[in-house]
Known about the structure:
By secondary structure, the protein is of the alpha+beta class. The protein contains nine helices and 24 strands. The chain starts with a helix and ends with a strand. This is Methyltransferase-domain-containing protein.
Amino acid sequence: xxxxxxxxxxxxxxxxSLYRIxxxxxxxxxxxxxxxxxxxxxxxxxxxxFRRADIEPNGQVTIACDLYVPQAQGMTPFHEDEDxxxxxxxxxxxxxxxxxxxASTVPGFCSSGKGAFEYRIRSKHEQPTAGQxxxxxxxTQLVNFPQNANGNLQVILPLVIGPINIVPDLQQTDTHLPLxxxxxQDMEMVYDGYRLFSTSMQPPVNIAIHEMWDxxxxxxxxxSALVMLDFxxxxxxxxxxxxxxxxxxxxxxxxxxxxxxxxSMMASPNSTIKKGKITITELDEAVExxxxxxxxxxxxxxRNPQCDMKTRSLLWGNSQEAASCGKADLxxxxxxxxxxxxxxxxxKAFVDLSTENTRIYIGYKRRGFDEAEERYFWSLCExxxxxxxxxxxxxxxxDDGLVPQMTLKTGVQLYRLTPK
Length: 420
């Protein structure tokens, strides 16, 4: 039975609770001091869409931009730049090949999901160190965004782009213009975007997650993963015994965010978890992105020798590949329900990876399934597991206290499975 227009709109609303800042056009890979450079950005949801009603007619998202210094090996943990400072200012809007005469009211987004700003780099002292830097673009103020709602900065995921190379004697023209209006500029451009997640400010411990939106489902961080991340933060605070010294398996991990975050917590000096084994799995063709994120966050392999982290190819239902992963104490699975034909294989993977004491947590956001298909999946699970829907502020189970408020806004549901 098809959905009514009202049902379709209500379903679509759940996808617009969280936004991301994305790069709209590439940026220059080399920059000179004291010159203005333009950056064009977008606001999009997990599907790459923007809802104009969220910002029209008078909404504003003001952004700030920081310079981060990468590590010599890998990329993270980033630290703040002691040699160069960064200024930003509003930029004129640009559309249909035309550049407006006046700059926008604020750097960022004004009444549109297409935004821009200009930045320049200035030295803090007489002998600054040049080389690679990254731009960290984050929201700092929301005005009438979303419209008719009390928006907070957590509804927008910041963006890290780079690397850019600071070249002290570089002189360029037209860099304050949109890329397509540049004249006679011949250089490599920067396309890559990352999401930054911190587990310690002093000393800095953070991980960068590279996204590849063009590679399909595994290539981006979906809303369910962000909700599961907050869930994991609560677990580490309230029930570190679920993870500390245990084997955590991030099933069909996509970008590898959740497993890498657990590893970064083990590398943080003030964390409640200090040791453990982490296995991050995906289909064979999707493991490459996770391995790339492991290289980006190479410090995780050296900071804590008591953290044993690895990636594994895992096709659901393949007992041999499951055996190479090993039995897990904790299985986290975000957005693994997307094809009903794979339900039986997924449940078999849960069984193959579990002991009698394993806890499985699933983050699920209804997209294409109807209630009958959902009931079928949970009935398959109930043949082997006790299934519990966890509720924000619920009173029935201690794990209800781990559920973040974000579940209410995003429509993401959190389930716990324990073997019968």
